[in-house]
Structure formats: C-alpha cells, structure tokens
Known about the structure:
Layout: H1 2-36, H2 41-82
Helix pairs in contact: 1-2
Amino acid sequence: MQQKSNFKNLLLEKKLSALADSLEKKEAQLNEVLSASNLDPTALTVVTRKLEDVLDSKNSAIKVCGFQIIISLSCDSHKTASF
Length: 83
C-alpha cells in the first residue's frame, strides 16, 4: 500500500515538474514572439491579457497538482502512523 502511494506521489511530482518546465518554455517563446512582432500597443495589450488568462488557468492547474501531492502525502503519513 505504501509503495503504491509513493509511486503515485512520484508520478504527481514528475507531472508537476513537467508542467512547470513547459510553462517556463512557453513563456519564453511568448516573450520572443511579442518582442519580434510589431504590434501596435492596443493589439499587444489585448493579446497579452488573453495570454495572461491562459497562463493563470495553467498555473491554477499546476497548483491543484501540488495540492494533490500534499494531500496524498498527508494521507500517507496518517495511514503509516496508524499501522
């Protein structure tokens, strides 16, 4: 039971790390595109706001994964303590 929980936690941690890495790469790519584009300030503001909304959504998903890891670890420690 403990091994299964540890494996699940490891998978969640890897998923969280992969999501964070992917987000960092996408943000860098976005910054390059915005820098290279010659958008007028109004259009740039609209694009930036939309992208910030997407990034906020992705960050929320990453936080949920983090909370799942914390909850899982907490449950595991309670199960281990009761044995």
